Amino acid sequence: MTLAPALTDVHAIVDQVWTSFLGEVEPLLPADVAPGGPFPAGQAWSAAVSVSGGWDATVTVELSAALAVSLTTTMLGLEGPEAPDDADLADAVGELVNMVGGNLKSLMPGPSALSLPAVAAGRAAHASGATEIACFDGVWAGEPVRVTVHVVTDAPVDLLPQPIS
Amino acid sequence: MRAMIIDDSRAMRSILRRIVAGLEFETLEAGDGQQALDLFESGQVPDLCLVDWNMPVMDGYTFITRVRANKEWRHVTLMTVTTESEQGQIVKALAAGAHEYVIKPFTPDAIVEKLELLGLLPVEALA
């Protein structure tokens, strides 16, 4: 049996990361997205980290290029006409997936190790045979962001048991 | 007081630099544990290190153990700032010689609170 994180947990983690670094003025809202993806491949950035050990999965963040620029500008504290370059964008998007993946890992069975992020300009590519077990689509300031969790397994997938409140 | 920020992410170093510089710390930066050790060995030994855990070249755990192995650097306060929130990793960091542990994402207040607990807020920042 492969465990999947609850979508509410994925949303909560992404929201926490967003709020910490981008502030609370503009909320990150869940969004319904039509099949085919929320942004064109050439106008996106993506990053992935692998979790291996007690839980094996790949956590991927994809976001529009405009959102990647906003995120990077805010994280680097850039002001005025100064614009982030591709290395800055890759760095910030990589740190974003590092935080999302690391916090998701902490919810799942462990111990597990987190890889360093792999970042690309464009949409994410997934390993053949990878199965998507969680997907959060959101919108921030009108721009899309998607967080997915993939596993490579033939075993059935079950949700992580939630605590009884 | 001087703080060294050790993280492979320039964006994260920038965020932490703005926080500690706002508390009147002088800041140094390193992109991994080895770069940080090189700065130590060149005589640029800080009062405080904010150390990421997962870094290329030399990770945070190795850096902490190397610093703690040198008695001339025992006065340096080490605080890990990382996404690693598994209990086992926290215990490992503290056992290796870290004084405090902050989990990303964090707010500036979380960093200030930890520094206050460690008695490391400069007088200017408390005024």
From TrEMBL, chain A:
Stretches assigned to the Chemotaxis phosphatase CheX-like domain: 46-127
Family annotation (InterPro entries): CheC-like_sf, CheX-like_dom
Annotated organism of origin: Nocardioides terrae
Keywords: Chemotaxis
SUPFAM superfamilies documented for this protein: CheC-like
Name assigned to this protein: Chemotaxis protein CheX
GO biological process: chemotaxis
Superkingdom: Bacteria
Pfam families: CheX
TrEMBL record, chain B:
Xref: Gene3D superfamilies: 3.40.50.2300
GO BP annotations, alphabetical order: phosphorelay signal transduction system
Residue span, Response regulatory domain: 2-119
Key words of the record: Phosphoprotein
4-aspartylphosphate found at: D52
PROSITE patterns: RESPONSE_REGULATORY
InterPro entries: CheY-like_superfamily, Sig_transdc_resp-reg_receiver, ST_Response_Regulator
Name this protein carries in UniProt: Two-component system, chemotaxis family, response regulator CheY
